[in-house]
Specification:
5 helices; 69% helix; mainly alpha
Length: 131
């Protein structure tokens, strides 16, 4: 049933190729926000773009507040999700739910069962490894 949904949508190869490029581009565009925030901080401190070139990875992550840096880094995933939704609707004529399930609604009981099952398995393995 789930595989049959692939035949209901527009699934030409070029649609996947262009869609992948759009989603990747959106994720990269979201990462530029971090770079612009760092450059803005450098300019506000009176430094130049030459100082930006000398920043190594450990200094890059500590340039901004840790919570702000986390928010800005996760923002690229928001851009990618928006691009996925746009590509699904624009190129493939599908809804987001069509790529997750063949049913009319999402079965939250199954999702919660899997979440707790793997949470227990992962926690058990960490505890076993710890002891």
């Amino acid at each position: 049933m789930f595989i049959e949904q692939a035949f209901k949508a527009k699934n030409d190869f070029w649609r996947y190729l262009i869609g992948s490029l759009i989603i990747g581009g959106a994720a990269i565009a979201g990462q530029f926000i971090v770079v612009f925030a760092i450059i803005f901080k450098l300019f506000s401190e009176g430094k130049s773009l030459n100082d930006f070139a000398t920043i190594d990875e450990s200094n890059f992550m500590t340039m901004l507040d840790s919570n702000l840096m986390l928010f800005l880094l996760l923002l690229s995933f928001v851009f990618a999700l928006i691009a996925i939704i746009m590509v699904l609707k624009g190129f493939h004529s599908q809804k987001l739910i069509a790529i997750t399930t063949a049913r009319k609604k999402v079965d939250w009981k199954r999702i919660l069962f899997a979440f707790f099952f793997w949470g227990i398995v992962s926690s058990s393995l960490v505890l076993i490894d710890y002891y």
